[in-house]
Amino acid sequence: MTEPSNRQQRRRLGRLTQQAKRRILRLTREAEQFVAADARFFQRFPHREFRLRAMGAAERELAQKELGGLPKKEGYSPYYLVWNLVTGFRQKLLITLPDGTDETSYTEEELKQLFENLIARDPRVQAITAQHRAMADLLRARPADRDGDPRS
């Protein structure tokens, strides 16, 4: 699942009441904490490319609004499978797994295979992932700044 562009968010927010706008902006700020946690994870473990984690409450509510609901299956919960393409550039896919899944029990290779399987299911996700791979290749080709971040 990719994040909507700022233009898309503004267009969508323009149709909402002030109260609904404030709620979405608050949820977005809360969800950004999880994005920051993903960044810290990949900084701490630079040899890792994938991370599996449960969705936060704010992320769950935003995804429900964005997607019109989350997949519901008794005994299952939503998780994000995060792929760190290059420092500062990640892609997340929504996945449902059994309640209480140990997020740390998967190997890097298992997470990679799971990611590839999820991509193969949806042509739209395939196209987005292809774009992300191309952008990551461009970022890797650029010289990094002093902090090692190729985006600057």
General shape:
globular
Task: Classify the secondary structure makeup into a structural class.
Answer: alpha+beta
Strand content: 15-25%
Separation of the first and last Cα atoms: 25 Å
Estimated radius of gyration = 16 Å
Order of helices and strands: HHEHEEHH
Q: Taking all residues together, what is the mean pLDDT?
A: 86
Largest sheet: 3 strands, antiparallel
Quick structural summary:
Helix content is 52%, strand content 17%. It contains five helices and three strands; from the N terminus they run H-H-E-H-E-E-H-H.
Walk me through the structure:
By secondary structure, this protein is of the alpha+beta class. The chain contains 5 helices and 3 strands; from the N terminus they run H-H-E-H-E-E-H-H. It has helices at 6-14, 18-44, 57-67, 108-120, 123-141, and strands at residues 50-54, 76-86, 89-98. The chain has a 3-stranded antiparallel β-sheet, with helices on both faces. It is globular. The two termini are 25 Å apart.
Q: Tags for this entry?
A:
single chain; 3-stranded antiparallel beta sheet; alpha+beta; 17% strand; 152 residues; 3 strands; globular; 5 helices
Write the layout of secondary structure elements.
Layout: H1 6-14, H2 18-44, E1 50-54, H3 57-67, E2 76-86, E3 89-98, H4 108-120, H5 123-141
Antiparallel strand pairs: 1-2, 2-3
Helix pairs in contact: 2-3
